[in-house]
TrEMBL record:
InterPro entries: Leu-rich_rpt, Leu-rich_rpt_typical-subtyp, LRR_dom_sf, LRR_N_plant-typ, RLP23-like. Gene3D superfamilies: Ribonuclease Inhibitor. This is Leucine-rich repeat-containing N-terminal plant-type domain-containing protein. It is found in: Cell membrane. It comes from Prunus persica (Peach). Belongs to the RLP family.
Length: 927
């Protein structure tokens, strides 16, 4: 939720624009006097026509602008208004005609000298600069160029428009404004919107604003505003009229901003400082803003509690303090806020995502409260119906992610009708909450993780007709999902995962946009989505159930599906060819079923696929070439534990985004392709994003909304089954183990410096381990066991500091195990089955008994982690014995690398001894 608010805001704005456009893109011109004819002045008509020629009007929105006889009166043209006295064009308002594009602005526009109102908001001028002539239209009182995507230099010529009262330049693509020196010239300005104009170099912006005596509304969202410098804060001449100030999404960090704002103590009504870097405690300054009705300080780094001065805010209607580091008892907050006057005015209180503790205090005085968000704090205690007894206006309630218990009498009749109910993680079981039956209007319901172990009552579903989101996950809700004959009004997002639901999946669930039924006991076939109502299904997770039968060949209905997970069920038969019609699919998981046959070739149409996991089935045939040709976006490809045969096609090397390639436990033969160095993601260290996330388009409330989901992947890692989600982006692995691969390990594999795990065990590989193996510096696990690899273990292997799992057993390796590193720290079994290997940690000594002591530091990169603290910790570690060392390493993971680096540097015989003792200790502990 955190951090998405802003995207949501932008998205909603965009959706609204679209909606307006969809409604015909018509502007309201009802105020225009349509009866007066023949007033249009020819020179101005020609200027307007020239202006039109500078636009691209594909949808013919300006069809009324023409030279034909019946169109002579330009005062009747769409968006044009003339003065009813002089006949001059005084207004051109094309706001909201979003399909218009601008190529240029005709210089003839200058003829519209009497123009007072120019609104081109939303016309895309694709980066051309604002022409200078704008500065000549000096009668302009209203200029709106927001969302016009003009580029070039900031148009400071608007400073010539001294009559301007309204100026909006939001969302253009100007280069940084160098100064606001032009601004004080606009002495009549009341409304100024420079949202998303880069003002990062304008340190004196508060001074420029102070010089506008009539300014009431100021919005500078996302301008990269620097904090004001104290000496630029002048109190003289400052405007006293500012009522609404939006400085959200900037870099404001110091208290100088509060000093500046205190100029406007008496006038401020609306103040938004959200998404800045404000730190420390909340200052007293707001308490002096007597008219303040809306205050938003959310998404900063504020600490402590609310100051006592807040008690003086008698007009406060909404207070947003979400996502800060506020702490203390919630009751203290409530006491201060509502001790006096605000208790009657406050409608919206958002204290979510802080560190507030204590129990829910008495809220009954807040009788005007409509929205209460206390989620994601550290609240505890028991809530009863009495807490809400007077809150008859409440419509949004979020208490989720605390440690609250809802102890509500079964007969409780709440005084409110909620629209938004989020009580996730509030314990309210074991019975299904009966009071929900009184709530007839909710569109959002989350009672996940609530310790409900009951059956969904029959009255429940009919209340859900209009939901857009419903989450009952992680309870013990049982029973069958009855096949109701109703349809959802919208296409809701439903999460019912991790419950005890049984029986077949009813067809009314097909009219959803997101359906998660994973981890239940559902059975029967999955034909419920064979219906045209499934067309908006974007996310479908049925994994870990008991559904069986064949996948019906009607995937053609799932035209918007992005994610399909049918893993861990009892499905069988072939993967239907209609999968090829799910063009937008990005994640396909069919793991652990009993699918047979080949991968359908229609899958190559699904060019958006990023994740394919069909592991643990009975699929057969060759690994198709088209995987590498058509599915270029693949990040994860898991075909393990099937019956695939043939060779590894060299086309796989085209998968430049691939991170996980798992073909283990098949019958793949021939050699490993040499072109592996083309797998560019694996050939890079690290990863810019930790997770692999996808956006799903969803329908809700007749609007489209995007939702996000993150991929996870489960596989065997160091001998255990692991699931990765939040850090999946860091997992880079190749697993070709347990096949019939032959030939040498291509040396190109050492280009894959991002690899974290490489498993080639259980094949028939020959040749030597390439001496460059040490290039794989990210490697955490290397398994080459059960092959026919010969020669010495390259010394470079000993320089992979992170290596924590190694298996070289059952090959034909020979010679001495390189000394001076953690290679001696591994259990001897990792070298077993190589009769000609010798040296520690093996008991077998080598023929040449001379132990080389190399004290030179091979690592030329210095490492700050090897600090005094590290040595001390090491010392303590050794003092405390083996577990002390381990404790240190487990405690601070980054130190583990430092530790191994340190040992590499040390690189002497002594260490070998220590390693041996350590291993013996370990053996002792294990036995
Ligand atoms: C003409 O303009 C005046 C002032 O702008 C306005 O009061 C009047 O209603 C207008 N007349 C018509 C017929 O629109
Ligand atoms: C702006 O005003 C100044 C001074 O009146 C004038 O010299 C300049 O030409 C004007 N610029 C534009 C673009 O009209
Ligand atoms: C904005 O300008 C930059 C640099 O001039 C350009 O790369 C970018 O594509 C422009 N964006 C839009 C939306 O025009
Ligand atoms: C200016 O701010 C006031 C106070 O917040 C608000 O009521 C008004 O709608 C704003 N005006 C515009 C044009 O946005
Ligand atoms: C669903 O919405 C419709 C239309 O807004 C309304 O008439 C109906 O009462 C609502 N039903 C429920 C259960 O909320
Ligand atoms: C007085 C006059 O011209 N009235 C006209 C105003 O416009 C409407 C609709 O265009 C006509 O129906 C009236 O006759």
């Amino acid at each position: 939720m955190q951090g998405h608010g802003r995207c949501l805001k932008l998205f909603l704005a965009f959706a609204l624009l679209l909606l307006q456009y969809a409604k015909g893109g018509e502007v309201d011109h009802s105020h225009r006097d349509t009866n007066v004819t023949g007033r249009c002045i020819e020179r101005e008509r020609q200027a307007l026509l020239a202006f039109k020629r500078g636009l691209v009007d594909k949808s013919d929105l300006l069809s009324s602008w023409g030279s034909e006889a019946q169109k002579l009166d330009c005062c009747k043209w769409v968006g044009v208004s003339c003065s009813n006295q002089t006949g001059h064009v005084i207004q051109v308002d094309l706001h909201g005609l979003y399909s218009l594009q601008g190529k240029m602005i005709s210089p003839k526009l200058i003829e519209l000298h009497y123009l007072e109102h120019l609104d081109l908001g939303g016309i895309n001028f694709i980066g051309i600069p604002v022409p200078d002539l704008i500065g000549s239209l000096t009668n302009l009182r209203y200029l709106d160029l927001s969302f016009t995507y003009f580029g070039g230099k900031f148009p400071s010529q608007v400073g010539n428009l001294t009559n301007l009262q309204y100026l909006a330049l939001e969302a253009n693509n100007f280069t940084n404004a160098e100064n606001l020196d032009w601004l004080p010239l606009l002495s009549s300005l009341r409304y100024l919107d420079l949202n998303f104009v880069n003002l990062s170099n304008v340190y004196d912006w508060p001074e420029a604003i102070n010089k506008l005596p009539k300014l009431t509304n100021l919005t500078l969202e996302g301008c990269d505003l620097p904090s004001p410098i104290l000496f630029t804060l002048s109190y003289i001449n400052s405007s006293k009229s500012l009522a609404s100030v939006d400085l959200s999404s900037n870099h404001l960090s110091t208290s100088s901003i509060f000093i500046w704002l205190s100029n406007y103590n008496t006038s401020l009504v609306h103040l938004d400082l959200s998404w800045n870097l404000l730190a420390g405690s909340i200052p007293d300054v707001f308490g002096n803003m007597r008219s303040l009705a809306h205050l938003d300080l959310s998404n900063n780094q504020l600490e402590g509690g609310v100051p006592h001065s807040f008690a003086r805010l008698c007009s406060l209607q909404s207070l947003g303090l979400s996502t800060n580091f506020l702490s203390g008892q919630l009751s203290k907050f409530v006491q201060i806020l509502f001790s006096t006057c605000a208790q009657n005015s406050l409608e919206i209180l958002d204290l979510s995502w802080n560190h507030l503790a204590g129990s829910l205090p008495d809220l009954t005085k807040l009788s005007s409260l409509e929205v209460l968000y206390l989620n994601n704090n550290q609240l505890s205690g028991v809530i009863s119906g009495i807490h809400f007894s007077t809150l008859s206006k409440l419509r949004s309630l979020d208490l989720s992610s605390n440690s609250l218990v809802l102890d509500i009498h079964a007969d409780w009749i709440p005084p409110f009708q909620l629209d938004y109910i989020n009580l996730g993680s509030c314990k309210m079981g074991p019975d299904f909450p009966k009071w929900l039956q009184t709530q007839k209007k909710f569109s959002f319901l989350d009672i996940s993780d609530a310790k409900i172990s009951d059956i969904i009552p029959s009255w429940f579903w009919s209340l859900c007709r209009n939901v857009t989101f419903m989450n009952l996950a992680r309870n013990q809700i049982g029973g069958t999902l009855v096949n109701l004959t109703f349809e959802f009004s919208y296409f809701p997002k439903l999460r019912l995962s991790s419950n005890q639901l049984e029986g077949p999946i009813p067809s009314f669930l097909s009219k959803t946009s997101h359906l998660d039924l994973s981890y239940n006991k559902l059975s029967g076939s999955i034909s419920f989505f064979c219906s045209s109502t499934a067309m908006f299904l974007g996310f479908l997770d049925l994994s870990n159930n008991n559904v069986s039968g064949q996948v019906p060949d009607c995937l053609t209905y799932l035209t918007n599906l992005v994610m399909l997970d049918l893993s861990y069920n009892a499905l069988f038969g072939k993967i239907p060819t209609t999968i090829g019609s799910v063009f937008g699919i990005e994640t396909l998981k069919l793991r652990s079923n009993r699918f047979v046959g080949q991968l359908p070739s229609s899958l190559k149409n699904c060019t958006s696929l990023k994740v394919i996991d069909v592991g643990d089935n009975k699929l057969s045939g060759p690994i198709p070439n088209w995987l590498g040709v058509g599915l270029k976006d693949l990040v994860i490809l898991m075909l393990s534990s099937n019956h695939f045969n043939g060779s590894l096609p060299s086309q796989l090397c085209h998968l430049t985004h691939i991170q996980i390639l798992d073909f283990s436990m098949n019958n793949i033969s021939r050699s490993i392709p040499k072109c592996l160095n083309n797998l560019t993601t694996l050939a890079q260290k690290g990863n810019p994003s930790l997770n692999i996330s996808h956006f799903v388009y969803m329908m809700s409330n007749n609007n489209s909304v995007e939702a996000e989901y993150e991929d996870d992947a489960t596989f065997i890692w160091k001998g255990r089954v692991y699931s990765y989600k939040n850090t999946l982006g860091l997992v880079k692995r190749i697993d070709l183990s347990s096949n019939r691969l032959t030939g040498e390990i291509p040396s190109e594999i050492t280009h894959l410096v991002g690899l974290v795990s490489l498993n080639l065990s259980g094949n028939q590989l020959t040749g030597q381990i390439t001496p460059e193996i040490g290039n794989l510096q990210s490697l955490d696990a290397l398994d080459l066991s059960r092959n026919q690899i010969e020669g010495r273990i390259p010394t470079s292997l000993s320089r992979i500091d992170r290596l924590s799992v190694l298996d070289l057993s059952f090959n034909n390796l020979s010679g001495k195990i390189p000394i001076g590193t953690q290679l001696q720290g591994f259990d001897p079994s990792v070298y077993a089955g190589n009769p000609q290997l010798c040296g520690p940690p093996l008991k077998k000594t080598c023929a040449d008994q001379i132990v080389q002591i190399d004290l030179s530091n091979q690592e030329d990169d210095k490492d700050e982690l090897i600090t005094l603290g590290f040595y001390i910790s090491m010392g303590l570690g050794f003092a405390a014995g083996f577990w002390g060392v381990c404790g240190t390493l487990i405690f601070k993971r980054s130190w583990r690398y430092a530790y191994f680096k340190f040992l590499n540097g040390l690189n002497d015989w002594l260490y070998v001894q220590v390693a041996l003792i350590k291993r013996q200790l370990k053996d002792m502990l294990n036995s």
